[in-house]
Amino acid sequence: MQKRDRQSSKWYKLDNAAKIIPSSAKGADTRVFRICCELKDEVRPELLQQAHDEVIEDFPMFRCVLKKGFFWYYLEESGLELKVTEDHLSACAPIYYPGRVNLLYRLNYFKRRINLEMFHVLADGTGGFIFLKRIVTRYLELAHGIQGGKYEGETSSVSEKGGDAFDQYYSKQKLGNQLKQLKKISVGKAHQIRGEIDENLLPHLIEGTVSASKIVALAKENETTVGVYTTSVYIQAVIDSMSRREKQRPIVVSVPVNLRQFFDSDTTRNFFGVINIVYYPKDYDGSIASIISVVKDAYEEQLREESVERIMNTYASFEDHIAIKMVPIWVKDIVIDFFNRKSKKGITTTLSNLGRIRMPETLSPYIDRFSAFMAAPSQQVCISSFEDRMVFGEVSPYATHEVMMYFFRRLVSLGVPVELASNDHDERAGRGSTKDNEDRDSKKEKGKRTKDAKTKKTRRKKK
User: Can you name the CATH fold of 2-169?
Assistant: First the structure.
């Protein structure tokens, strides 16, 4: 990582969603997300570096480093320049280290894949994809001598990309109303997914690719949306993994919602809310319909415009309260960490649907798929679609992917073939997996898997 000659004193407040991230990035929960574009030809690193260097000029906020003030963390533009490297780290490895001055994102490649990894204080998945799509567009223009053309979001200005949409749209509330709303969306203790934890908390990645059109057809067959349907099948998979005793507690699926759907904003910074889908296993009668009805009602209730605005205002206005403003950052760190750990007990898992990824038509023939992953202390599943490829990505410290394998088996039983890939160095991730699934890991990712195995062994020796 090189340093540029110029210096900048421009700084940014963290957006509301980013404020808790530095205090809660610990252990396996690195708060790093990875978004990937897999091409149909191997990546040429020199062109990827050139594409990045041209595109980053329109995203100056991504050059920021994280600083710690007396009351809040903040972002400050730096003269650091990113160096594109071959992928040699575990997926979603830590990026932020307290006290260290470094960029908060990395761009690497492996064979045909381009990986953008980013510390969540900079952006959310939608914002990250805006950046990655621009890089991929410019890369393909350079590699194939074509014109990429325009696509959604390209016309926004630098200031619009770096704007704080929470600050722009929230309506001030009394602290008492905020606390009532938080209590309302909390359900107490939820079922917790458990598994064999990697002894070094190294992340284990699994990726399942299916036909998007087949999933859409199944959703229509069940008279619901893709979001409701995939959430319902995933809840079925969680139930499959539960013992009778564990079924006494509710399954709570946390679903991030892109607020750009409700408020006019082109920001690349964090701008999302969270809704919780609560399902009680005792209500399950063995049919997907008994889950869909509950999930559908929860989506419709919580995605009404007034509900989304109320949730956004609740979180966005906390920082505006004078009593919170005046608390020193070291106290905030302790309090945020405590409430973050407590809140996790009320969540079973997170399911983040990033939707369809659109690219200029002239570039589509060169792209195979997009995928996304988010580090989590337990399990978070990210869904992304490009043309007819829908990808379910999950990365966790579990050496096995039990719930995900149940999920993929469910899809296979419904007539949806699943193409699997993993970075695991042994067969534990697929222990008990079905023969119906084609594991492309053994064909396309063998080199990466071996490399990750070497990395893991080296780290264990050091420890």
Answer: Chloramphenicol Acetyltransferase (3.30.559)
